[in-house]
Every structure is written in C-alpha cells, then in structure tokens.
C-alpha cells in the first residue's frame, strides 16, 4: 500500500491556515499524500509536530509500500546505539506517524493499526531488556551462562497482549524469570539482579525528554503487587495463582502473551497456568463476579448513568469498550475450559468464535463487533490529537468539531447521534448479561395449595450449605420468584416442592449452580420437571450438581449412541490427560454426566427403557 496513492478516506482540516502551510511545505509530492498530511496535521497538533520533526523522512514515503517502511523501522530498533532511549523515542514518533497516516487514509484496518503499534512495543521492549541484561552481566550481577535473556521474560497483558495497543496506551507487563536455571540458594540474589534489570527497562522506556517518551510502563498486574517485587520467579508466580488467584486475574490472563525476553520460558509458564484460567466445569459463577465488578467500576468512576455523548467515557462508560471486552471474556471463561477454540486473546476473534458456536447470536456478534471497531477507531482519534491517554469525548464545541474533522466528517450532530446509538446498542446487550441489581419481588409461594407451609419450607432453606455464602444467597434471592412460579405450576406442586427441597439439601455449594440457572432459565424448567416426575433423579442431581454442565452440550439430547460411540467419546474427553489421578477424576465426571443424560432422556421420552438400560450397562462395563 502506497501512501502517495489515492485513498478511500481523508481527514478534513480543522485549521485551514495550518493545512495550507503543510501543503506548501510538501509541494511537489502527490496530491493525495499532501491532502492526507494536511488533514492530519491541521486537525492534530501532535501529528503536526511529528510531520515537522520528521519532514525529510516524510518526503520519502510516497512510492514506498507502508508495510515495507514499517518493517524497516522495526529492523532499525535493534541497531546498536549508545543512547537506546533516544533512538527508540525517535523511532516511536515515526511509527506513530506512519500508522496514523495509513489509518486516517483508510489504507489499514483496525487490526493492522493495532498490530503495528503493538509490534513496535514488542521490539522496543525486547531491545531494552537485551541492553539491561548485558549491563547486568558486564557488572557481574548475572552470569552469561547461555540461557536466552538469563531466563527473564516479559508477559504483555491487556491490549498489548492481545495485539490491540492504541496510540497512547500504557504497556502492562509482568516480569518473571525461570528460577530453575539458578541455584536455589541464590534465588534472592538472582531476583535482586533481575529487579534491577527490570528497573533499567522501565527507565529506558518511560523517561520523558523533549522528544517525548517511548512507553509508559505499568507493572501493577503482577502477582500481589502490594507485597512482591517487580520481578519474581515463574514457579513462585504459579504458586500464587494456584493458591490466591482471583477472577479478574483469570480474565487478565486470557490476553497474556510472552512478548520479549525468553519467550519460550514465557510460553511454558502460560501453559502451566492453563488449569487456573480455564476451568473444566462450566464457570457460570463468573457472570455474577463480573456483574459485581462492572457495577463497582461504574459506581467508583461515577459512570452509572446513561452515556451523554459530550463528556462520555468511551472506554469505561456504559456501552463502551470495556463492556464489550467484559462480555467476550466472561463467556470465554465460562465455556473456554471445555472448548479451547474459544481462547482467543483478541476481542474481535473472541466474538467471532463465540458466534460460531452459537453462544452469541449473529446479530449480537455483528452489533458488538461493529461497535468495537468504531469505538476503538474513535479512541485512536481522541488520542492522536495531543498524544494523550484519554478516552473521554470532549465537551467543548470546538474540541468536538476537531475530533469529527480528524475522523473525516463535518456534521458533528450526525457523528454524535451515531455514537450515542452505539452506546445504547452495546449497553442493551451488556445489561442482558450483567443486569444491575434490583430488589426481587417476594416469592410467589401464595400460589401453592398450602401457601403457609410452602413459605415456611422456603424460609428454612437459608440455613442450608448451598445458601450460606452471601453470593449464593444473593443469587438465590433473584431466582426464588422463578422457582416458586415453576414449582407451583407442576402437576403435583407439593411433591415437586418436596423434591426440590431434597435437591437443595444435597447441594454442597450453591454459587455455581445458581449462576448456571440464572444464565440459563430453561435449566430451571428441566429441574422442575425432574422434581415433579423423578424425585430420585433430583436427589442424584443434588449429590452431583456438576452434571448440569453436560445439559448445555448440543449432544446431550442427541441419541445415546452405541458402545463404540461411547468409547470414542470417552477417549476424546481424556485426550491430553496423562496423570493417572486426573484420568480417574475425569472418568468419574464423565460417568456421572452420562448417567444423568440417560435419566433425563428416559424421563422426557427421548430414549426407551431398553435403550437406556443397554447404554447404562455399557457405561458400567
């Protein structure tokens, strides 16, 4: 793609005098390129400064493929320099300008833009780590034993990990090292040397001069940042996540990527964390946790109300970028343990994978995807103007007009109406999955023949193990009206209520199961049907609630299959598991799921007694 060739779009100059100055400065270059420079520089003071600072280089761009120019800049990162920081700052400006011109001219789609910005971050980080490690070796702090980067690696988190950096992103990093390369007795000494290396890297990238900075670095996503140094051993980190890791850390690890240093060691570390991030059981409790996290985020930042476009927070506000990311990541956490195809780092690939498996409707996926692209593109325009880490759409009239001009439009009202519609569309879909808590209406136990007895039985549930935690109690309070309504509509409501009571009594914990019902109301219908018609199956379900996960599989209601098909299914389920204890655990779960499947299919008339008995015997054998 040649930036000097005609382009599909072009920013409109906000400052006509500045546009005329830029056109004159670059007289003789192709008109489309001059128009692109003028529109960019006359609407963005930051881009105007880059054009002036790199004017000689800018004149070489027409006639060259932008992709080749970008690769040349990447290659230049590793060139030996006495002052690496100054070298990287200069290259950062060129990469930012090249990417902005390709972006504003419509030559590069969003993924290419963010990949270009992230690619430079990877290269710069790697160069800074190599230089800092060489200094540590020269000072005798670390031995040059041939291990790549001394076993030190940097995990890119967030947007950098997902190849989604924007124009003014911080880079979120976790520094770890492979402590197996060093004597155990020297762990503290080695860690201290690695900490100094990481500090050198941060100084190189974050130092601000007249030429700006390379990247702001944020290290707060590391394990327990309040008490741990900025670098720890990989095994120590793994122990932390296994023992103390929280839901937000699981979600953060979806995007984690070894970006620099000993990337092979980084890949091994992420592989070791797979059981922490990706739970084998369908993790519907994540919905409740994300719902609470969303409400806290909106409340703390004062973003709880509907978005008003002037002053709207494009990232964190209702209907913004974070809402789309939360939605995709939550569904990934729920289903990704059983389906590795859902473990995409990027938001758009995740939405596409979820839609392909029917976990998001095509209409919702298209709406969210289009909103994400438009939101991220506007976020880039906001940050291009002053190279500021902002996500707020301006309030002042002139500032709003500048944003619209940089985006290639002139009608501010139409631009903002479209933005408001996107906020509303995303908010509607986020609210459907993460509703704001409202008080639930009293449970409709009055519909029972003996309403007082039903209400008394329900009141006694509060002491059951499944309802002892605050989270479980809160979830059940939301579900109770639906449970009462369904049970009261059973053919024999008192017997159905007694069977539900038995189910609840056998339930050792409630958060996962209640979250599953909350997210999948048809499962409540199935439970009531079981309680009304098969009390023994309800007792079985109370002892083995994990089998409910199997109901969500498309194969659950398919024909039970032959002995050979069952063997093939079990072998596929055990694929990749080598530890004998884990094999036994997985076989037990598989058997419980198949037994429950047989019971449900028999109950609903999908399998005959002879078929069910034959398959049950095959499983037992």
List the defining traits of the structure above.
single chain, 621 residues, mainly alpha, 29 helices, 5 strands, 4% strand, globular
Explain what the structure shows.
The protein is mainly alpha-helical and 621 residues long. 61% of the residues lie in helices and 4% in strands. The chain contains 29 helices and 5 strands. The chain has helices at 16-25, 31-41, 45-53, 55-58, 66-77, 84-104, 110-138, 158-161, 187-206, 234-244, 247-254, 263-272, 274-277, 285-300, 321-335, 347-356, 362-386, 397-406, 412-433, 451-460, 470-488, 493-506, 511-519, 521-533, 535-543, 548-551, 563-573, 580-603, 609-620; strands spanning 152-156, 171-177, 217-218, 231-233, 257-261. Strands 1, 2, 3, 4 and 5 form a 5-stranded mixed β-sheet that branches. Helix 9 links the parallel strand 2 and strand 3 (217-218). Helix 6 (84-104) runs antiparallel to helix 7 (110-138) and helix 21 packs across helix 23 (511-519). The longest helix has 29 residues, at 110-138. The chain is globular and about 85 Å long. The protein starts with 15 loop residues before the first helix and ends with a helix. Mean pLDDT is 85; it is low at 437-442.
